Amino acid sequence: MSDTPPLLSIANARVMADETCILDLPALTLHPGENTAILGANGSGKSTLVKLITRQIYPLYGGQVRIFGQDNWNVFDLRKLLGIVSSTMQLDFDADPPLEVVDCVVSGFFAARGLWAHNEVTPAMRDASQAALADVGAAHLAGRSMASLSTGEARRVLIARALAHRPRALLLDEPCAGLDPAARHHFLDMLRAVARGGTTLLLITHHIEEILPEISRIVTLRGGRIDEDGTKDRLLTSAALTRLFGLPIEASPRGAWFHADIMA
Ligand SMILES: Nc1ncnc2c1ncn2[C@@H]1O[C@H](COP(=O)(O)OP(=O)(O)OP(=O)(O)O)[C@@H](O)[C@H]1O
């Protein structure tokens, strides 16, 4: 057994909103190298779980959310281990004055949404940022402002921003939302390369078509609770998805991917 602490270890985590428990996770452990998809319908608690992991909210007293074995993190240190990309982050970088693409990636070193006079940017940070942009096929965007990019282009830059630190894991919250089919295809290909490069992926989604071949574990959420936890072969079936989403779904493997059709 390795001594590496779990990427994520949750125990007795409950989150309340308006006097209702919207997330109740007695136990969830994810290990480094274990690429995982958290799958659930609208309202199942996915965003609440993301906020727990990113420290935007905290569980009720007695709950525990440990990342890489630690309860307390400052955001700067955490970002070096866990990169975060969500479909809504692009809005944070539509800044005035405009934020240039490489500066956006460099700003990740300061866990900031732009570069400020007090940020001491080193040549190594700039080099790492350029290299991360090249890794995600976005080197040609250097010099452009974030506000001028398409959704697909900006999503790549944000992945580069998360990867520039060489984090051990990436948390991807609905990363394909807003992408057209071609952009989604290229984007998923790029994520496959990231996974093959050794970065653990934690994908939050309600689209089974986005579950990469490199993802082996599926955790399903329903009503703020873990419903199932297992392999793709067991959980990406017609019966399991019909139950999860509450309408007739026919699931079929397509090579190493899965596809779902609604049969209503
Ligand atoms: N601040 C809040 N006050 C009241 N209810 C809330 C609050 N935040 C979330 N909820 C409720 O908690 C449940 C889970 O919400 P959450 O946003 O985590 O779901 P989700 O799986 O991310 O959904 P989606 O796929 O639509 O984004 C929903 O029923 C939601 O209405």
TrEMBL record:
The keyword Nucleotide-binding applies. This is ABC transporter ATP-binding protein. Signal peptide: none annotated. Keywords: ATP-binding, Nucleotide-binding, Transport. Residues 8-248 form the ABC transporter domain. GO terms for molecular function: ATP binding; ATP hydrolysis activity; ATPase-coupled transmembrane transporter activity. Pfam families: ABC_tran. It comes from the Bacteria. SUPFAM superfamilies: P-loop containing nucleoside triphosphate hydrolases. It comes from Sphingopyxis macrogoltabida. The keyword DNA repair does not apply. Gene3D superfamilies: P-loop containing nucleotide triphosphate hydrolases. PROSITE patterns: ABC_TRANSPORTER_2 (PS50893). InterPro entries: AAA+_ATPase, ABC_transporter-like_ATP-bd, ECF_ABC_transporter_ATP-bd, P-loop_NTPase. GO terms for cellular component: ATP-binding cassette (ABC) transporter complex.
